[in-house]
Design brief:
Blueprint lengths: L2 H6 L8 H21 L9 H12 L9 E2 H11 L5 H10 L11 E4 L17 E4 L1 H7 L9 E3 L6 E3 L8 H4 L2 E4 L4 E4 L4 H13 L5 H4 L13 E3 L1 H10 L1 E7 L1 E7 L2 E8 L6 H13 L6 E6 L8 E5 L5 H11 L3 E7 L1 E4 L3 E4 L2 H42 L1 H10 L3 H12 L3 H8 L8 H26 L1 H19 L6 E3 L16 E7 L3 E5 L14 E2 L9 E8 L3 E6 L3 E6 L13 E2 L12 E7 L15 E6 L3 E6 L11 E2 L9 E7 L4 E6 L3 E6 L5 E2 L6 E2 L9 E7 L9 E6 L3 E6 L13 E2 L10 E7 L4 E6 L3 E6 L13 E2 L9 E6 L1
Parallel strand pairs: 8-17, 27-32
Antiparallel strand pairs: 1-3, 2-3, 4-5, 6-7, 8-9, 9-14, 10-11, 11-13, 12-13, 15-16, 18-19, 18-21, 19-24, 20-40, 22-23, 22-25, 23-28, 26-27, 26-29, 27-33, 30-31, 30-34, 31-37, 35-36, 35-38, 36-41, 39-40, 39-42
Helix pairs in contact: 3-4, 4-5, 8-13, 8-18, 13-16, 13-17, 13-18, 14-15, 15-16, 17-18
Length: about 800
């Protein structure tokens, strides 16, 4: 073998196979981690997603553009940026067009892009796509040198290493990916909440995760559902790892005595068709009993899975089994792993993700501002040259005409007028139309604008706070443009631990109680508003000789404090009162309260605070003012009944043949107004009544005449102007009026009072009285269950000694029982 051939002979070196495998596998693992499976913390994109969006923008497929074939997009991205096969690219493209996969879609698809039932997208030759408006926010300003570019796979062109991303996309749309030896799962979130948290962190860099969770309530899935347990949510966001239990929305519906379970939302990434098949399989295997029929009635208007139940089934038990055996209940695992600086995988907390995003935007805004500053300076430099030329136009023309060539003219202009190369070139290319007066003015105005822009850009680059101010302004613009309501409900407690209150909507409701003790709550919308003087509608069918005694407007999360004729107090939340229809009688109160035989509820007080434990401190300085039918008044510190139980405690000691009828909460500075059935009233300060203990019996509030009784107590609040408040009275025959409280002079307690209404045979005796503050409507209910709801504006304001107008037309033998204000 010749020397030349010896040199050409390849040189082999021996090496341990373990070392070779180790290095080769490590190289492969890093390639999968960095170039395929994990997202970048800055833009929340995996490489294939980033390349698809960038490739679509390069093809001119921004939001206003016409859709183009997906096959064209896939081919272009594969040929230029992502040489990993068309199916991988199309799958990623299709997922970004699915409203059940992404909380905020990045691709606007036209055609079949799959369904929540697991149907695959149509072939790429049949579908079309373009970028959504929100996707354009991820790419905005990419042409302004805002992000670094690198060579594509064959070095023929450049591609972005990260997108400018005006949105914290990693949190908004979440991500799931499996790399080598590691995986990431980040759920989607609500845009409004994430932006509010980001802005808070910009203003308060030292904010803790708990501070940010005041804005980010938890994950917000495109499929809706319910997420449980605030404790688990806090742990997941603080450490970057954890799990949250989610459930679909399923309700038990009763119609004509038959029960159905209606599923309208399912957990994130659950296949609806598979879920229905699983339920059918469980029924067939008799693991799920009591289901008569199963139907999927979902359509373009929404999801609707119907389970018809057998007559002897237990609906709640079946629903619990659905949660137990199917993916109607699913655990979502948090593993917030992302690439930091494009190369380093890290498990990140909520705060760290937002910090990296803010830093990314700081770099992008700084680079964009520098780019805009450079372009503004370049243009201002040219404009200054043009202005100088216009100022010396005759000499400029003479110099150009005297030059033999373009190059000679260029040199002469630079030498004679002190112009730069760019300025001289611009002057030589200037059109004669620039000599016109208006064109000259345009150049001067543009130069002025450019100088202003240069000053602004320079100021921004000098001050990091101003850069952060620009970021905050842009985030607020994004929020205003794309804000939407949360889809997933967050329940604070864990499953099996959360309170019933977490599942009850906070809404207005009405509590009704009859003389015989039947109680219920009902939506006030059941009583449509009518004009005064009407007959009303049937509120509830009452038993013969039973009448409605209390009618109270409140909120479902309020707490009800009950007082009985014997002076005892009880407390339960509003939502524990059984809900019923407008015409239902309700349930006996003894089902929810430990009322003794011969005892009846005479007053119900709705409060937002709970009278137990440490919460009682929130009511410090508040009092309960009580009044009896014999005109006795008592003031009790709320703390005296802080430990009230369902079994009840004594609140007042009553004299023989007296009844406790009215209880109101006061501030300690309010006025008390007592009204009698024969039209007398007295107003006095609550401070005239000293505070007493629970065992005390009270003092005289109004001195009653023969055969007269107290029929109402109202509180004139000290925190509102007295001139803006009225006293509303209503009689048993449906007559009512309003009288300004300024007409009632303040007296000492224990007097006979003054006339508040002219009582005649036509009006009947006074039944109820209320002080009006912010209420807008009155609901009146009769002893026979008729109800009318009308605006308070229809009740006239009259002087004290008048009889009022008819607000409710009553049938023969019927009387007004109670009123409520809304």
């Amino acid at each position: 073998m010749s020397a030349a051939e010896e040199k050409k002979k390849p040189v082999y070196s021996s090496r341990e196979i373990t070392e070779e495998m180790k290095e080769s596998y490590l190289a492969y693992a890093m390639s999968v981690i960095i170039a395929r499976a994990l997202p970048d913390v800055r833009d929340g994109m995996k490489p294939v997603q980033r390349r698809i969006l960038y490739g679509m923008q390069e093809l001119g497929l921004a939001h206003p553009a016409k859709h183009k074939k997906s096959a064209l997009i896939v081919g272009d991205v594969m040929g230029k940026y992502h040489p990993h096969g068309d199916s991988a690219i199309y799958d990623a493209l299709a997922r970004m067009a699915q409203d059940f996969s992404l909380r905020y879609m990045l691709v606007d698809g036209q055609g079949n892009f799959g369904s929540i039932d697991g149907d695959p997208p149509a072939a790429m030759r049949y579908t079309e796509a373009r970028l959504t408006k929100m996707a354009s926010e991820l790419l905005k300003d990419i042409e302004k040198n805002t992000v670094p570019f690198t060579d594509n796979y064959d070095g023929s062109r450049k591609e972005p290493m990260v997108l400018p991303s005006r949105l914290p996309n990693l949190l908004l749309n979440g991500v799931a990916g499996i790399a080598v030896g590691m995986a990431t799962t980040i759920p989607p979130h609500n845009l409004t909440e994430v932006i509010d948290a980001t802005i808070h962190l910009i203003k308060h860099p030292k904010a803790a995760v708990n501070d940010l969770l005041a804005f980010v309530k938890g994950p917000d899935f495109p499929s809706g559902g319910v997420a449980y347990n605030q404790k688990d949510i806090v742990e997941a966001y603080a450490t970057g790892k954890g799990s949250v239990v989610t459930r679909g929305i399923a309700e038990i519906v009763e119609e004509k005595g038959k029960y159905t379970i209606l599923i309208t939302e399912i957990p994130y990434q659950v296949n609806k068709a598979t879920l229905v098949e699983k339920i059918a399989s469980l029924v067939k295997e008799k693991k799920l009993e009591g289901i008569r029929d199963l139907r999927d009635e979902s359509d373009k208007d929404g999801m609707r899975i119907v389970l018809e139940l057998k007559n002897d089934s237990h609906p709640q038990k079946i629903l619990n089994n659905l949660f137990n055996y199917t993916e109607l209940q699913k655990t979502i695992h948090f593993n917030m792993l992302a690439l930091v600086d494009g190369i380093q995988p890290q498990t990140l907390s909520l705060k760290q993700i937002l910090e990296y995003f803010i830093e990314h935007r700081r770099v992008v805004v700084t680079r964009r501002t520098q780019y805009d500053l450079d372009r503004a300076k370049e243009r201002a430099h040219i404009l200054e040259g043009l202005k100088k030329a216009l100022d010396h136009i005759d000499a400029i023309i003479k110099t150009i005409r005297a030059s033999e060539t373009k190059e000679a003219a260029h040199g002469a202009l630079r030498k004679k007028f002190g112009l730069s190369d760019a300025q001289a070139t611009a002057i030589l290319e200037m059109k004669l139309q620039a000599l016109a007066g208006l064109e000259r003015k345009k150049i001067e105005e543009e130069l002025k604008t450019k100088k202003k822009m240069i000053a602004e850009f320079t100021e921004i680059l000098k001050d990091t706070k101003k850069v952060l101010g620009v970021i905050e302004k842009e985030l607020l613009e994004i929020k205003a443009t794309y804000t939407d309501a949360r889809k997933t409900k967050i329940v604070k407690g864990a499953i099996g631990e959360f309170s019933e209150e977490d599942l009850i909507a906070q809404e207005e409701t009405i509590i009704t109680l009859t003389k015989d003790g039947y109680i219920k709550r009902i939506n006030p919308q059941a009583y449509r508003a009518q004009k005064r003087g009407g007959k009303g509608i049937l509120g509830m069918p009452t038993k013969e000789e039973d009448i409605v005694s209390i009618f109270l407007g409140c909120m479902t999360h309020d707490n009800l404090l009950f007082f009985t004729n014997k002076g005892r107090a009880f407390q339960i939340p509003v939502y524990e009162i059984p809900e019923a229809s407008r015409t239902a009688r309700g349930k006996p109160a003894v089902n929810v309260l430990s009322i003794a035989p011969g005892e009846s509820i005479t007053s119900i007080l709705a409060m937002k605070e709970k009278l137990k434990g440490t919460n009682a401190g929130e009511l410090e300085g508040k009092y309960l003012v009580m009044a009896t039918t014999n005109g006795i008044i008592k003031r009790l510190d709320v703390a005296e009944i802080a430990n009230v139980r369902k079994s009840g405690i004594q609140a007042i000691r009553l004299r023989k043949e007296d009844r406790l009828e009215w209880v109101e909460m006061t501030s300690g500075k309010d006025d008390v107004v007592l009204i009698t059935k024969k039209g007398q009233s007295i107003r006095f300060g609550e401070k005239d009544v000293r505070t007493m203990g629970r065992s005390a019996g009270g003092v005289m509030g109004i001195r009653l005449k023969k055969d007269d009784l107290t029929v109402g107590m109202a509180i004139a609040r000290s925190d509102k102007e007295s001139g803006k408040k009225d006293l509303l009275v209503i009689t048993e025959n449906g007559f009512s009026k309003k009288t300004s409280l300024t007409s009632y002079k303040k007296q000492k307690r224990g007097g006979s009072g003054i006339k508040t209404m002219k009582i005649t045979e036509k009006t009947g005796i006074i039944t109820a009285a209320r002080v009006l503050e912010d209420e807008e409507e009155i609901v009146v209910i009769s002893q026979k269950g008729q109800v009318i709801r009308t605006g308070l504006s229809s009740v006239p304001s009259l002087s004290r000694a008048t009889q009022g107008v008819r607000v409710m037309k009553l049938e023969s033998g019927d009387k007004v029982a109670s009123v409520a204000l809304l």
